[in-house]
């Protein structure tokens, strides 16, 4: 448990007491802990703290109880005061400083938490802390409320009469905050791995663990716990439902809770998939010649469908073969290079938010005054703008009509679930794409195009360190293979 520190560096003692109980309770808990584990000045802990101090880091400890002394060599303090630890080489007594006063104090009188001085921005920036811990504090607050709800529903005297299903249903929306944490986890792991190669950070995190008397697991292991927890809920609810009598009052709620938590896991997996696709979309865009206007990611985050169509334009009713890419909110269309068929040139885009899709029957089309087959239109709901498209086969036309319907559903679902890509995530994806295409290097869509089109086949799960059996249960049902992916090579021959 870490005590919050307010801006002037003093701990918010009232907040600590409210959360942890009375000082007497704390004292009894601490004595009990010391009896089991020894006091806070253990050998491994001392080594870690002294390594921090020798590296120039500022180490703090919090006073649990008043230390009143008549010895001018000892440091007096009151419970809740923050002490700068100057020397911890002695097992029983540490040398510390409070303001202008210095002296020895009993190591057993302080509670272990190690906090890097806020002024030491060379060690931890706010951005680093956000990357490493994500929204774990929001998850903590959510689970404090969830725990209280479970405790109210749990019957201590007769556990078999407990009714906890409704509690999961009540908090199912709150659990969506796990999505942000799970999406951030790979970045957290990467940042932490980089820092752990530096001794100063390695000692710092180990000292934090020792002072908190936490089990011997590294920080990255602790940070994986929320990801594992959200995986376990559907499994645990499935077991509870399995052994619950159908006549039990809680049976229907447990059944509904199981479905709700499966949907939460499905939503988290889907959002993770969407975020992982950003790099591929940005990479694809960087391979397109003569790109104009905003980036695709400025409005879109998913490829819904793509393929070759004939576009007929007014007023001359000219027909042109183009390759179309349907994203959420827009359609981008490109032209193939006449000589190098692996290169695409940007031509334009259509805002689908202002369009409605119209199925056109085979025969005479009145707006364009010509005979068409396998056609459909995009018609602006506010102006006279109309776009006419023809597919080679009726089946292809039906796939496009379904794709436009799916696109509208996707946008509506994103609104309902509050899904959004941050500007930081968009910019990072575009930066990564630009690095892969150095200035002056010839562009070709061979590999990026193939990878981009294949991205909808893949369904990345939660981080790989989660047991696969657990993740599999949470995954969406496998989709039937689509001929679209097998035949996509016909659209753009790949460079050998």
Question: How would you portray this structure in words?
Answer:
This protein is an alpha+beta fold and 496 residues long. The chain folds into three domains: 99 residues, SH3 Domains (SH3 type barrels), CATH 2.30.30.40; 146 residues, Dbl homology (DH) domain (Dbl Homology Domain, Chain A), CATH 1.20.900; 119 residues, Pleckstrin-homology domain (PH domain)/Phosphotyrosine-binding domain (PTB) (PH-domain like). Helix content is 44%, strand content 17%. It contains 15 helices and 14 strands. The strands form three sheets. A seven-stranded antiparallel sheet has the order 9-8-7-6-14-13-10. Strand 13 and strand 14 form a beta hairpin. Helix 3 packs across helix 8, helix 4 crosses helix 7 and helix 10 packs across helix 12. The protein is elongated. The N terminus and C terminus are likely disordered. One of its GO terms (biological process) is intracellular signal transduction. Its main location: cytoplasm. Keywords: Cytoplasm, Guanine-nucleotide releasing factor, SH3 domain.
